[in-house]
Amino acid sequence: MPKKVIILNSEQIEQRIIRIAYQILEDSIEEKELVFAGIADRGYIFAERIINELKKISKQKISLIKISLDKDSTSLNANTDKDVSDAKDKVVILVDDVLNSGRTLAYGLSVFLNVPLKKMRVVVLIDRSHHDYPVYSDFAGLKLSTVLKEHVSVIFSDKPGEDAAYLS
């Protein structure tokens, strides 16, 4: 079994969430409303945590859409829990836990292709440097160079202090 190495502990993840919240605020200070789109499951949880921090420092209206993808499908199969047309002419912030090849985020972006947006931003906790698709993060908690056979996993726990990101 491959050895797991912790790359971010709970406190470090929390620090990065706070920093990303401030970066998003700076990037969208003029906006009255932000639409977060979290890719289920961990991207959605990560988006919720960023929103909780943003609410402490901003008066902006914030909504959250959950994007559910069939990642094993050879074609795009995505569902959302809210109508994506609600994002029309707004800033959309697409959130996932890890950016590896960019395929998952490309699928996430695609649900908004027929919606005119003000701008789109991409947020990830960990950005690896193996992009097969032209998808890049605007905000990342950690940029990490790894070899292809290594795997990054993120755990968001309901219990305080038990979040972690591992490299195996």
UniProtKB/TrEMBL annotation:
Domain Phosphoribosyltransferase: 7-139
Top-level taxon in the UniProt lineage: Bacteria
MF terms (GO), sorted A to Z: glycosyltransferase activity
InterPro entries: PRTase-like (IPR029057), PRTase_dom (IPR000836), PyrR_bifunctional (IPR050137)
UniProt KW Disulfide bond keyword: no
Keywords carried by this UniProt record: Glycosyltransferase, Transferase
Keyword check for Transcription: no
Annotated protein name in UniProt: Pyrimidine operon attenuation protein/uracil phosphoribosyltransferase
Organism placement in taxonomy: Bacteria, Pseudomonadati, Bacteroidota, Sphingobacteriia, Sphingobacteriales
